[in-house]
């Protein structure tokens, strides 16, 4: 059996796993959907179902405060049946494009397609995210598509995917910056960038306008989809850093913290893109990793994108302080502890919010360590390459 | 970071790393010893605190109680009736209690659970309250020791009659008369929170009364507070109960402390109470099919702060004194404006008035669990392979090839999944095969498992089959060993926050697993001892037998604290020489101990949501089996000696 065939076999096996588990054990979706790791009010399957219910019963879903999904997505899902198949297929597509991205990168060392396929197909994080049926899976797919098309220099496709992806989730517009840098890097034309921006704005406008028409000429979906994320309207515990501040601080500080958190989530976008102009896939990936703890409503499904793409960057493993195996293990351990602390707080009532937040903080610290470790490794590798030194030579570089 | 860099450089400069790696097993042992030492330190002066009422609203014992002589007459009257009808069928008894409660003014109901056990309960919707919260008073027909709860039932009837006349209540009063304080009560509590139509709001607290004697007086009270899965009632409630009891002149006993020790407040007595508390918390919820539950386990998991008052002795203060204690507790809870949230949910009591809070005792279990982390690290860094003894530690020695890595992980995963499957199957088995009808089967199962695990532990002694020496085998075994130890460490750490005592006791019992070394089969002799010592089923046997023999730690403490030869002789005489060990009925009864505990373990989750069996079969047992397999593999060369052989 050749390489390509076996890759497809593995991905198909992954697809079957994602299909068989919910078929044999249908409660798994609601269990995961109730867990704090996989659901937020913005992306949970529960609220999606509620939105679909309202829509099919001719009640305007955007009248209340429950549905935070873009209208086109909701309309699409109200027509879809066999959601198990849909989500399994979407997630397998992510795996497929991950393999493609891995194939198309220009890194000197990388894993074979088979390893990448195995890694994604049997990745517990990926499987669990699929089973949780959160719409973030679609968001991940759209981002992977953006990366895939950018790598192939199919910029129009990647801009349209990014527009869709931005339409789906607010934070994704941050990726415009590395994408524009990519376009400039490959064309060296400022006009191309301007044209791309116009295309981006045009596609987004088209999407938003059709949503506007779809929701009976109301702009309320804008508030529900995007403003409520930016303004952190639903203060619900999650694995991120935001919620604790807004539950604990006095109300008159909240606008200050809102701006701080929002600025913080954006602050590294431009510097990352400028610093890693020659490797914008890496910059975008680091950005995705950074967003995992800087965004308002992160879930494990978001984390999945970053930790799945980790396998593409084998070339930087050499200079890491902590091996990816260790960091992956660490993340899994903390993710196991999180529900325990949530349980101690919410069900047993014997712990409190501090317990859960503390362990969430550990997760965020772990992620910052992983992200900065990769950054430092990237910088070192670049240095070695630029000076033509063998990567295995023992030279101590020091951070200033 | 700069400091870390400096340390790292120093370590490199002096070549400390290999030495450090080689001494990891010692560090691991040291950590466990430190953990034990930590526990032993807790009862020292200065390590614990005096209890205090943290919630201002409670105000225990601030009102004068009128539950005195005139009410005594009612209690006596009820008691006479109860004595007369105690052996009637449950329906008649239910009718009797219902008619009494209806006369007083309670709404009464009967709940019959799926297995036919009955509970009579009554609700007093208090006029002043908003009908959202309730306080519960429970008097089971049978106490945890299997006696008829005559005094308890009478006192409860007298109390609720008296409560109905008071106009102070802001929370509903629910009175419950279950057949027993374990499964029947648990079924009722579960039903109350899920299916019952007639309820009185969320339960804030529950007080269970056990008073088996027919006497008018009692000597002191024992307070039980331990729920399943390491859950305890809020310390404020315990403090209230203790404070009120002492205010009324009762001495309070914890964990069956004998009367003579109630005045003691010295290091040995505090340590004894602490250890008994740890043991009680770790074994809570492992109840035999009948008899044993004191009520606290039944309310566990529903956020109901539960206490059991057990009357001890038949002379001293009159029964209304206990009534006044319970009344004052009810009044205190009634004063509460919010839920119990002040004070501690995690604590260890040393005496009724002294406690250690979670911050002070948690490090003990952290240390013992950390010992497993270190030993797993040590295993991964090739320390456990005896062939590596003389190889200097370096990066090359630690390298694992991909195939052995995958094989080792797969081996461990298979064992874990197998153990989880077997554990779950046993739980399913216990839910379909009734204990009473198949006692023999359970006895065979339990003792079969105990004997089998002990026998297979000696396998390393008898195995002679030699394998072709290869580094792949060494590496596979190393990965399996290291991962299994790490898995156990992680399980113990996760368990820490939920159930400190269980985590600590399992890590101590499983500690010998860290001594397991593998090598050529002829060198694996000592492993059998460690395997036997750390077998979950050996501990099951020990716990079961100790339970049946009614082992009392206080006797041991007495012997050590006031050591004298005549005392030792006396104790040996009464406890060992006077016992007819070969008497078949006695022996059978003792051997039945582990069987009952095992049944309690298997059914714990179904009946009380006790996780103990899951923790054992999901974490401890797979690691034990893994260690057994490792010791049965012939590992003849070190991990990095590939080249020499090929």
Automatic annotation (TrEMBL), chain A:
Q: Quick one: which pathway?
A: Glycolipid biosynthesis; glycosylphosphatidylinositol-anchor biosynthesis
Note one Pfam family from the annotation.
PIG-U
Q: Subcellular location, in the record's words?
A: Endoplasmic reticulum membrane
Q: Keywords of this protein's UniProt record, alphabetized?
A: Endoplasmic reticulum, GPI-anchor biosynthesis, Membrane, Transmembrane, Transmembrane helix
Q: Which residues cross the membrane?
A: 7-25, 80-99, 111-131, 167-185, 197-215, 222-246, 252-273, 325-343, 355-376
Which terms under GO biological process does the entry name? attachment of GPI anchor to protein; GPI anchor biosynthetic process
Mind telling me what this protein is named? Answer: GPI transamidase component GAB1
Record the organism.
Ogataea parapolymorpha (strain ATCC 26012 / BCRC 20466 / JCM 22074 / NRRL Y-7560 / DL-1)
TrEMBL record, chain B:
Coiled coil segments of this chain: none
Query: What GO cellular component is one of the record's annotations?
Result: GPI-anchor transamidase complex
List residues traversing the bilayer.
27-44, 361-382, 402-429, 441-465, 485-516, 528-547, 611-633
Keywords, sorted A to Z: Membrane, Transmembrane, Transmembrane helix
**Any GO BP annotation:** attachment of GPI anchor to protein
PANTHER family documented for this protein: GLYCOSYLPHOSPHATIDYLINOSITOL ANCHOR ATTACHMENT 1 PROTEIN (PTHR13304)
Q: What name appears for this protein in its UniProt entry?
A: Gaa1-like, GPI transamidase component
